[in-house]
Design goal:
Elements (H helix, E strand, L loop, with lengths): L2 H5 L15 H10 L13 E5 L2 E2 L8 E6 L6 H18 L3 E5 L3 E2 L7 E8 L27 H6 L11 E5 L4 E5 L5 H5 L3 H18 L6 E3 L10 E6 L1
Helix pairs in contact: 3-6
């Protein structure tokens, strides 16, 4: 199974066998990130493993990958883009994973920690069928529902399942818009930029699968769209 194929089968796993994975497999997992495509070439991340976390919406797992940045602009979408590839790779290996946006490392504190990815041997299947995805209808996120790259975006996971993206297809590009949470959601969730990076990851994998080059430019200078803000241009 390739990463693109995993898009259509991956699910967030929340029940794990607490037996740790072999050390050699953990080394292989961490090394995978070096070979993945980056959204921006100027963003760098640190990663570390822990087996103890804290947070309101925790999941018990044998391993947690803590992803740290530097506080730089644009790093949230860059992290989502990069590490969603790892989550999909884990799926190809039959290893379960789930994003934990509010979970923190209980053993080591770092002010630039972004989020955690829980993973391990699943007690449930790490796969699902298309009918099991709980997503918006594709017509709610785009004007081009037949576009296969946008169909891949429609399956992207997001915090609180907000799916904060809209993709407006034009003659020569796709305009990407973001919807920020409002009301109570805005007080507890502030990682929609990371979700946008996950969506871009799915788009990029689908475009590569079709034999086409993926390019993205971050910009807010897009035509107005009610309820959304401009995020960037895909070409």
């Amino acid at each position: 199974m390739q990463l693109y194929e995993a898009i259509y089968q991956r699910k967030s796993v929340r029940k794990y066998d607490m037996q740790p994975l072999p050390d050699e497999l953990l080394v292989e997992i961490l090394a995978q990130v070096e070979g993945f495509q980056e959204l921006y070439t100027d963003q760098r991340f640190e990663q570390r493993l822990t087996n103890k976390t804290k947070g309101a919406f925790g999941v018990k797992a044998p391993h947690y990958l803590i992803i740290s940045g530097s506080g730089a602009v644009r790093e949230l979408e860059a992290a989502g883009f990069l590490y969603q590839q790892l989550s999909l790779w884990l799926t190809t290996q039959g290893i379960g994973s789930v994003w934990l946006g509010s979970t923190k490392d209980a053993l080591e504190q770092n002010e630039f920690d972004i989020l955690a990815l829980a993973f391990g041997k699943p007690l449930e299947s790490p796969y699902r069928s298309l009918s099991e995805f709980n997503r918006k209808t594709i017509s709610q996120i785009t004007n081009a529902p037949d576009d296969e790259c946008i169909q891949a975006v429609n399956l992207a996971p997001s915090g609180m399942n907000l799916q904060p993206w809209f993709l407006e297809k034009t003659v020569d590009s796709v305009l990407l818009y973001e919807k920020k949470p409002k009301g109570p959601s805005s007080l507890v969730y502030r990682l929609t930029d990371l979700d946008m990076g996950i969506a871009l990851c799915h788009y990029a994998l689908a475009k590569t699968q079709a034999g086409r080059e993926f390019n993205f430019q971050r910009t807010s200078d897009l035509p107005d769209k009610e309820g959304y803000i401009g995020f960037g241009i895909i070409q």
